Amino acid sequence: MPIFGLQPAGLLQTIFEEIGVAVAVIDRHGKLAFANQTALGLTGITEKQKSASFEEWRRNYHFEDPLGHEIPLEDSAVMRALQGERVASEEVRIKFPDGSTKWLLTWAYPFSVAGLAGVLAIVVDETTEVELRRASSQLQRMETLGALAGGLTHDLNNILDTISLNVELAQNDIPSTQDYRLRLGQIKAASSKAAGLVKRLMQFSRTQELDYRPVQINEIVGDVLHLVNPLFRRNIVVSTNLRSGLPDVTGDASQLEQVLVNLIVNALDAMPNGGELTISTTAVPISGPSSKNGSPERVLVTVADSGMGISEEVQSLIFEPFFTTKPPGEGTGLGLSSVYGIVKQHQGSIAVHSSPGAGASFVISLPAQKAKL
User: Fold this and answer.
1) Is the pTM here over 0.85, yes or no?
2) Residues 248 and 357 in one domain
3) Residues 309 and 223 in one domain
4) Which of 22, 122, 284, 352 could anchor a disulfide with 107, C-beta 3.0 to 4.6 Å?
5) How large is the angle between the packed helices 178-205 and 127-173, nearest 10 degrees?
């Protein structure tokens, strides 16, 4: 695509196409005057859009800053540069019409050379780098929260044990009236509830002791579905796709059951008007040296729903303790954090795949037991 209708010199054209970053020129009237192949591929500009104005092209896309705030047209790097501002190293997220997103690092420089004026825009796709950076930051944050929760749960357990013991002694020693019995019962019930919350924090911090045994994931799924069956409303369609012959995993059956119960309950909450809940299992090979020493597989469990979906911003927070999107008083924010901790304590991983309005899938990956040689 020639710049301002002129064919650039062969060397300059080659440089633009080979430097590996997107380069575009917008003229003083806001028309796209030039874009190298990297820019065309990165932004999805079509043949019809080559002759369009920058404003017309941008209407098809949604731009956000790193905090998720929309960037209006007048605040875009190109429009600011057309006003004479040099815009360097601006990180933005672009949402395409098909729902996909990319993180871009942009520079926009105004220029005026030999009677020609406009904006030179340079764009680097740093989607992979941003996602890795965010994943690393989230992991560090989760590890810090886990260490903090581990220390708190130890102290809280000691306090709750003391309260519970003294309640029992008071119930046995005090010539209790009905009011005393009622109040002591309320204290005991509150202590039990608090102990339950502490237990979930212990699950997140991975400080609880587990009863590891060889377990079959398909059997766990079957037991959980039987357990939660009363929760399934008539407008919920439940389907399973369980692969036969799965290898065992080493785990605590009761804790793995709790993981699935929490995920299923969350899925049901995401489908207040009904929908489909799908649970599937499979095994996937792993590559590398470990696959040659008797453990060629990981077992995957997927809990998927057709509900309201989860935004990208929320996805980065849902496994943190006390984070919840439910109204006050309707959730503790410990359900998914305990899921995360239990899975991690089983040497596994959990990932969420979702977008608003498109449902959500939680995928748990657990190491299969080593095959006996």
Assistant:
1) no
2) yes
3) yes
4) 122
5) 150
Please check whether residues 241 and 182 belong to one and the same domain. no
**Which residue's entry shows tokens 């299992």?**
281
pLDDT tens digits, 107-164: 888 888 767 788 888 888 877 776 666 665 555 555 555 555 555 565 566 666 666 6
Nearest to 366 by CA among 307, 294, 286, 271: 286
Q: pLDDT of 259-312, one tens digit each?
A: 898 899 889 888 988 899 999 999 988 765 444 555 558 999 999 999 888 887
For 157, the domain range is 131-205
Q: Residue 332 pLDDT > 60, yes or no? A: no
Judge if 302 and 288 occupy the same domain.
Answer: yes
The residue length of the chain stands at: 373
The total of other beta-carbon atoms located within 10 Å of residue 322's CB is 12
Residues 6+ apart with CB under 8 A from 308: 270, 271, 356, 357
Is 4 a domain residue? no
Q: Is the dihedral of CA 245, 251, 253, 259 positive or negative?
A: negative
Task: Report angle CA 345, 346, 347 to the nearest 5 degrees.
Answer: 90
DSSP per residue, 271-329: -TT-EEEEEEEEEEE--SGGGGTT--EEEEEEEEE-SS---HHHHTTTTSTT---SPTT
Confidence band for 242, pLDDT divided at 50, 70 and 90: very high
Strands (E), the chain: 22-27, 32-35, 62-64, 87-95, 101-113, 116-125, 213-215, 236-242, 249-251, 275-285, 297-305, 349-354, 360-367
236-242/275-285 β-pairing = parallel
Last residue of a domain, one of 157, 183, 205: 205
Structural domains counted in the chain:
3
